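User: Show me a protein chain along with its predicted structure.
Assistant: Here is one chain, sequence first, then structure tokens.
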Amino acid sequence: MKRVTPNIRTFFCREGIWYSFVIAGAFFAALLKQVNPTMLFTSLLVCPLFISLWLSRRILRQLAVKRSVPSRIHAGDTFVTQLELANPREKISAWGVIVEDDIAIIESGANGEPTNHRPAVYFDYIRSNDSKRKSYVGRLPERGRYRFGKITLSTRFPCGFFRSSVDLDIASEMIVLPKIGMLTAGWMTRQHEASETMLHRRHRSSRITGEFLGVRGWQHGDTKRWIHWRASARHDQLVVKQYEQHQNHDAAILLDLYCPADKTSQFTDDIELAVSFAATLASDIIRRGGCNLTFGAFQETVEVYHGPSNTALLDQILDRLAVLRMTSTDCLADMLTEALANTEPNADLILISPTSVDFSDMTRFGKLKNDPRLRALMQRIRMVTTSDEEFDKIFHVTMQ
């Protein structure tokens, strides 16, 4: 809890200025007319001015403030910040104290102009040796890293003639993560079709593993070594052994935020959709669990995160997406080279980009074509383009 230092500033309020004019007028009138009662009345008018000056500064001394903010939220979600104001003095109470916060973005993921926010909370009365807690509700629509900086305490008690204030340096940080949207039934259908294709290919090329579950009817494509001959004799038809399949659907999410410098304004919304879709997809894959996830992106350098699906990996990915910006440097080929090197051959490869990518362009992907393994993986990449008119059929998110 941060205590107030003696560096208190005091300013005249508008009411105090007008009140000073009244005192000055009464004083000069009494001086010119030589009227003693008027001079006495003027002296009485001066007393509230000095009492207001002394008390407004006295109230702020020794006050202590504590702030509690969430460390991570998603863009557009409401958050609650709690402010605790303590008055440790033995005899003097605190009246009419305004606690003003200062929120500034220090690392933005969007490309708009950074704006500062200054929410305020009013404490009407705090007794001596007591404290009060109040909170405010806010919402930050842009992803990025925010700093909760200085807290300003101010009061105009008792008469409003003066405003005394003091700044307390209490630093806190909060990361605003990308918005999490909803994967529609269209995406689930595409995902199921890709999984079925991958599963069929795996059954044709791999050995059967897992525990024996039972038998099922023979289907076209089953090999003869799967046939359970004794059960086939009992059922008077061909049946095959069925095993528990320990599937591990590894996935790789590659996010390409390349945008030509002359088209930045056109792709701003598509960039935010790409980031939000990548965050939603990573959250969905890790929530289902049971796989290894590779995430690749480019800001100033190629960054690849790889590991088993868990909350720690998700936090790393979301924290990076919170401050990831569009880039005018085309490094997709380098990102593919590094990311695919950490990817299993049977992984589900998804490339997310605001624009379509032509993999047959030898000037961009020539060095990948020379590697047979990378060339085979590139042929299995599923492209998701956020600028596509059909994109809203697979993903929904509210963009503010």
